[in-house]
Automatic annotation (TrEMBL):
It comes from the Bacteria. Keywords: NAD, Oxidoreductase, Tricarboxylic acid cycle. The keyword Oxidoreductase applies. The keyword NAD applies. The active site is at 188 (proton acceptor). Residues 7-147 form the Lactate/malate dehydrogenase N-terminal domain. It catalyses: (S)-malate + NAD(+) = oxaloacetate + NADH + H(+). NAD(+) binds at residues 12-18, 106, 113, 130-132. Catalyzes the reversible oxidation of malate to oxaloacetate. Residues 157-322 form the Lactate/malate dehydrogenase C-terminal domain. GO terms for molecular function: L-malate dehydrogenase (NAD+) activity. InterPro entries: L-lactate/malate_DH, Lactate/malate_DH_C, Lactate/malate_DH_N, Lactate_DH/Glyco_Ohase_4_C, Malate_DH_AS, Malate_DH_type2, NAD(P)-bd_dom_sf. This is Malate dehydrogenase.
Length: 328
């Protein structure tokens, strides 16, 4: 067992995702059963009391791996020494809004947090942005942290990936672990492209198992609009499933993905698949030795090309909009 605790900073700790996330981190599901964690909870001043309540409950779980909990309302203190930073704190959308509508409301949070990460996080810091619009918020944070390697800033599309796994498995009548090589491309928004052209279902090509009409009229819209469907049903945006996806993303990043399959994560583009360099876009990825690698060499057909381009065009628009707002 490692004895030095890993510092995990969670912003928005008093929010609904925070509540679904912290207990799982403290129980060892983020970093594994041998790694003690020290939690650093960052909230705005109005959220501190509720975060203190959550910390009391964490204490009451007597988690053997939980080495300490500190609560802050100052970003520099919150990110000081952070090895893992989960940037969750941001306003969620409500019914009728698109995630892009949050650009101005939430964009202002991520510049100062990027600066704080730059100033004091640990040398090995890994950052996952969950707060929406996640890709562009990650870009803002990354641009404010010039001393941190850009590849350490990622945004979450694992929830979309998991949603797609479930939809395809259910349609094919197989268990989710029989589905592999799905990809979410682009933005965590309604333009995202869940791609099954390389997917395997129970060892067969997914395209032999499901038909194109279902792909276009059911699968893609269901996955891409699932966030809105949850808001419509719950009256609140997804929380436990979002926390679960954040755990999956960081766990894979730290411990590595298995074999030749892959998952999806929004990472800084190196220009692969025609995605402009520097954008934080979702790709098919594997994790090796603590680094994400884009799966190379996949054939992109015309249908996929058009869908990827449309989502990437939206990311370019968001980047240009935050540039105009002076956020990057
Ligand atoms: N990427 C994804 O797949 C995904 C999935 C679900 C939700 N989200 C997004 O995650 C975000 C959080 O969702 P939620 O349901 O937990 O919201 P919530 O409103 O329940 O909680 C947000 C918390 O963040 C805190 N906060 C606000 N500004 C902060 C700041 N500057 N520093 C620290 N904390 C701050 C608030 O006080 C609040 O406690 C939203 O933007 C939501 O849209 C993303
Ligand atoms: O859709 C939202 O606004 C919340 C979240 O991004 C989701 O995908 O559930």
């Amino acid at each position: 067992m490692t004895t030095t605790p890993v510092n995990v900073t969670v912003t928005g700790a008093a929010g609904q995702i925070g509540y679904a996330l912290l207990f799982r981190i403290a129980s060892g599901q983020l970093l594994g059963p041998d790694t003690p964690v020290s939690l650093r909870l960052l909230e705005i001043p109005q959220g501190v009391k509720a975060a203190e309540g959550t910390a009391m409950e964490l204490d009451d779980c007597a988690f053997p791996l939980l080495a300490g909990i500190d609560i802050f309302d100052d970003a520099r203190q919150g990110f000081d020494g952070a090895n893992v930073a989960l940037l969750v704190g941001a306003r969620p959308r409500s019914k009728g809004m698109e995630r892009g509508d949050l650009l101005e409301a939430n964009g202002g949070i991520f510049g100062p947090q990027g600066e704080a990460i730059n100033a004091g996080a640990a040398d090995d810091v890994k950052v996952l942005v969950v707060g929406n619009p996640a890709n562009t918020n990650a870009l803002i944070a990354q641009r404010h942290a010039p001393d941190v390697p850009a590849e350490r800033f990622t945004a979450m599309t694992r929830l979309d990936h998991n949603r797609a796994l479930h939809q395809l498995a259910t349609k094919a009548g197989v268990a989710v672990n029989e589905v592999e090589r799905l990809t979410i491309w682009g933005n965590h928004s309604a333009t995202q492209y869940p791609d099954i052209f390389h997917a395997r279902v129970g060892g067969r090509a997914a395209t032999d198992v499901v038909d194109e009409a279902w792909l276009e009229s059911e699968f893609i819209p269901t996955v891409a609009k699932r966030g809105a469907a949850i808001i419509e049903a719950r009256g609140l945006s997804s929380a436990a499933s979002a926390a679960n996806a954040a755990i999956d993303h960081v766990h894979d990043w730290v411990t590595g993905t298995q074999g030749e399959g892959w998952t999806s994560a929004a990472i800084v583009s190196d220009g692969s698949y025609g995605v402009p360099e520097g954008l934080i876009s979702s790709f098919p990825v594997r994790a090796r030795d603590g680094r994400w690698e884009i799966v190379q060499g996949l054939e992109v057909n015309d249908f996929s090309r058009a869908k990827i381009d449309a989502s990437v065009a939206e990311l370019v628009e968001e980047r240009d909009a935050v540039q105009q707002l002076g956020l990057v």
